[in-house]
């Protein structure tokens, strides 16, 4: 038997397609995290607990995207965990948008904020993971869309991309 026929090429068509998808996911997640950092530290918009929880979803996407870029594909378990992380973060973003549509609903300083601020990440990197704002605060619009709506769109689309990658295997 020919030894070369058993070896898969590193950059087969399928792997290239996955790497491009993982690169797109990495760009989406890091751009979202960069925008969050910019809005917090330059524009002085204080993040609420729900914002911080959405950032965890973006970090998870960035981590799984880097793993996918390095390997060319994620295993089934890693893909399922990435999708689960995305579903959770998307749910938080949807709830955040619902809170903003309810004029009398506030999550402010509540047990969620206390839990988020007690996590080790809030101590290690307070600029990124310390919740100091109110969930119901009026936020500026960017291109006619609020920040939580942008977050919902990016988290949902990223989750769907991970799902499509898993289904293409």
Automatic annotation (TrEMBL):
Q: Which domain of life is it from?
A: Bacteria
Q: Which InterPro entries match?
A: DiS_bond_form_DsbB/BdbC (IPR003752), DsbB (IPR050183), DsbB-like_sf (IPR023380)
Where does this protein reside within or beyond the cell?
Answer: Cell membrane
Q: Which GO terms describe its molecular function?
A: protein-disulfide reductase activity
Kindly report the protein's main subcellular placement as a broad class.
membrane
A Pfam entry, by short name: DsbB
SUPFAM superfamilies from the entry? Answer: DsbB-like
Q: Which residues form the signal peptide?
A: none
Keywords in alphabetical order, please: Cell membrane, Membrane, Transmembrane, Transmembrane helix
Any coiled-coil ranges, and where?
none
The membrane topology term of the UniProt record is: Multi-pass membrane protein
> Membrane-spanning residues where?
20-40, 52-70, 77-96, 147-167
A biological process from GO: protein folding
**Any single GO CC term annotated in Swiss-Prot or TrEMBL for this entry:** plasma membrane
Q: What is this protein called?
A: Thiol:disulfide interchange protein DsbB
Q: What lineage does the source organism belong to?
A: Bacteria, Pseudomonadati, Pseudomonadota, Betaproteobacteria, Burkholderiales
